[in-house]
Amino acid sequence: MRRLSLRARGLMVAAFGLLAAAAQDGKKVTWAGQTQLDVPYKKVGNKELRLDIYFPDENQPQDAPVLYYVHGGGWAAGSKDKGGLPLMRPVFEIVAEKGFVCVSIDYRLSKNNGVLMRDCVTDAMDGLRFLRKNADRYGIDPEQIVVWGDSAGGQLAQMLALADPEKFPGDPSLAGSKVRPVAGISWYGPTDFTDVGLFRTDASDKRADRFGNRIVGNSKGYAANREAYEEMSPYFWIRKGSPPLLLLQGDGDTTIPFAHAPHLKKKADEIGADLTMVVVKNAGHNWRKAGGSPKPGVQEIQKITADFAIAQIRNKPSRIPSKK
User: BD-FAE-like domain: which residues (predicted)?
Assistant: First the structure.
């Protein structure tokens, strides 16, 4: 496929971005560079799944690295619009200064509609396959993709980094586009569904096995669905040669309790996998205060996240332009 010049592609994206921004005014996306919003990446039945692309303001290399964001929401809520909101957008902005293209995706949601967590994983993998297939169109390097997500999206990001994509075939039109992320980042994402104890909390409204129905469509639990629970648990996918993984977890989180991060960290250390864990003190889910001011604070968390992504491609310095 012939690659468009950066100038030609820039003009095309700018025009599209203006139209899309107008159409999506309610999303309140503020971005200094160009955007392509609501790009269809696959179709399931009558439903199109879409992604948003945020280009750097300047200095985009010809083959730009990618930060690929997967939203949270319990696999049942949320949308790609979260990538443009204040908690996430600063991470996009920091990496964009280093030439990254940022992508935020939608995926099918589990709302008693037959959609299971496995479908969410498959959709997120198809988004990566779409980027591989269309790398020339967007000027990206599919060999330099860092995946990131929060909460349910944190589990999905872990799965993208650790699981075997061949086990999650999706859209046949994307099947020939193989891609593996170079690293993953998880904000307060669950790591193991087989250990109900990891989900126990003092919160009266949080059942320990509350996500079982989203894994298998029933509430029979791990004993009756061992294979499915293990398949959705990053704990069972991590290997010594897995891509580097960064886990950030609040010690006061009652939605996805703190125990998840050290649980996976312990296994990673035992097998020699590359996993970094950052404990955020006094923090609950979404970095809310839990007994005090979170340490590190939100801005530092955002910088830690962005710096980790940038560090994963330092072995290819030609990909990262310097700001003039």
Answer: 51-267
